[in-house]
Amino acid sequence: MGKLKEIQKKQKLVETVLVPFDADGWSEVSGTSLTFTKVQRDSKNGRPFSNLYSSFNLPATSGQCTVYSETFIDTGMSALTQDNAIVVSIADGKYGELIDGRTIKFTIPTNTGITTAYSSYYVGKPFSSDNSPQASYFGNPRLLGNVVGNTSLASTNISFLFADNTKQPVDENITNWSNGWVKSTPSGYVGANPDTFKFTTNSTNTPKAHAQTEDTPIGICYLDKGFIVITDPSIVSNFAMSTGTEDGTNMYTGNTSGFTNLHYTGDTSATAKVTITAFGELNAGDKVNLIAADGTNYDFAQGDQSSVNGTFEATTSNDVTATGLMNCINTSSGPSGTRFSATVDGAVVTITQNTKGGAGNTTVTLTDSGTAGMALTNSFTGGGDLSLCEFYSFEKEWVLTINIIADSGEFYITENQTASDSVTPYYGAGGKDTGMKFKTPFGEVNKIWDISKVGSTFITEVGLYDNQNRLLAIAKPDRPIEKPKNTQVTLTLKMKF
User: What is the pTM of this model?
Assistant: First the structure.
């Protein structure tokens, strides 16, 4: 059994290192990994989620609302106290220990199209979260006295979301919140562009703006928990729940306050239905007006059958007339090109937006003079967008550094007699003073042979033991390390957790 040298406290160091989560740190979360739940402040409406207001430090009582409004009076933060909200959950395993609060890009499907939100801070310093009084209201206490900011320092674990189509930055030097978002390693991490995700009020020398007091957030990000809370009433009331699913198969058909763990499986196309009810009542000038997803209007008028001109003939029967309408909508050389596609079932024409997404949920208008000859079942509905959340996150790696010191004259003993030119062993810590402090494991007395006459020994492995003499780890260099007799050799071991 070998003899052990005690490692002194000053030879050991424990530190933390930030490493990217899952290879490069960037995650794209969608589908079942990104779910939406409607919550409310009122605990009496039959829904069990009012307690989440307290969980997220949102004002939950009338008294708390009053205090909150007084605290943030005449600031953009006052908009965050709302009776209804949407809680967005990022699935476990899709982010690291903390999401960097500067890096979030989040697309939210609404009935009027996609709202794209970007994260930012009220204090423009490169922490991994917003070190502001505003953020500390919803998260951890902020750090005081740090002028520069440091990604490795814990802060509030909160950031805020802003959207250009809700309210653009009040800073006249910053055009859009989107201008500062890039998909590269944020400043403060290994391999980062030094300018990436820094903050300033001047857009000419930095890519990202931080919020001013007057800027209005649409929601709050809880960076260590994987939650986002959307409070903006225009988004909450217009949320595209009908294009989401709770079971992965059927579109949601419940009421506006009832959805739980709603998610989006992919982009969907909006459809509309027009029925020819009395072909003989269709007159010249009667038409179907369609608005494409890009906002362009197209007319399909009753007249001579001409797909190129976008006209259809009312003739023979309702079914034949409906087929004529379908054909002129489908003609790529016609007015609308490839923006729509149509099918017919008897006298019913189903029209589909070829561009998927919520932007296709547009109005269909019928012009039908005199007695009605056609009817609108529904304008374009069902267009939905895949919700996507992108962000950078990191893990904390604990690194134990141990300096192993072989001093001059040490490690010139062996339990192998054939390695020594001595014929007389010495025992335990007795005999020749080598400068080593020996521990004889379990009280054993083994024969130890002196090899101090050898010019050099070679270190081939290092064993680490606990105070019970149990082997914890073995470190082996890629080649033997020479240890001259009268020379100190220091080996540095790093263990990562």
Answer: 0.70
- Which residues, listed in sequence order, are joined to residue 214 by a DSSP beta bridge? none
How far is residue 84's CA from residue 156's CA, in Å, rounded to a whole number?
A: 24
Q: Each residue of 315-367: pLDDT tens digit? A: 999 999 999 999 999 998 888 999 999 999 999 999 999 998 878 889 999 99
Parallel, antiparallel or unpaired: strands 365-367 and 287-291: antiparallel
CA-CA distance, 279 to 302, in Å (whole number)?
Answer: 10
Number of H helices, E strands in the chain: 5, 27
Mean pLDDT within 128-145: 94
Residue 117: pLDDT band with limits 50, 70, 90: very high
pLDDT surpasses 90 at 50: no
- Residues 233, 89, 359: CA angle, nearest 5 degrees: 50
Task: Give the 3-state secondary structure percentages of the chain, helix then strand then coil, rounded to 5.
Answer: 15, 30, 55
Residue matched to tokens 């890519």? 207
CA distance 144 to 151: 15
Chain segment 153-202, per-residue pLDDT in tens: 889 999 999 999 888 888 877 888 988 888 889 888 888 877 778 776 55
Rounded Cα–Cα distance for residues 77 and 216 (Å):
6
Neighbours of 315 (CB within 10 A): 12
- Band (426; pLDDT cuts 50, 70, 90): low
At 295, the amino acid letter reads: G
Average pLDDT, the chain: 87
Q: How many CA atoms lie within 13 A of 403 on its CB side?
A: 11
Of 210, 216, 221, 222, the closest CA to residue 80 belongs to 216
Domains of the chain (ranges plus CATH)? Answer: 18-263+387-394 (no CATH), 271-381 (2.60.40), 407-496 (no CATH)
Contact present, 163 and 236 (Cβ < 8 Å): no
Q: Would you give the DSSP letter of residue 77?
A: G
Whose CA is closest to 353, among 365, 341, 344, 335? Answer: 341
Q: Please check whether residue 404 is in contact with residue 490, taking contact to mean a CB–CB distance below 8 angstroms.
A: yes
Q: Please state the rounded mean pLDDT for residues 132-140.
A: 96
Quick check: 119 and 101 in contact, CB under 8 A?
yes
Judging by beta carbons within 10 Å of its beta carbon (0-12, 13-18, 19+), is residue 39 exposed, middle or buried? buried
Burial environment of residue 104 by CB neighbours within 10 A (0 to 12, 13 to 18, 19 or more)? buried
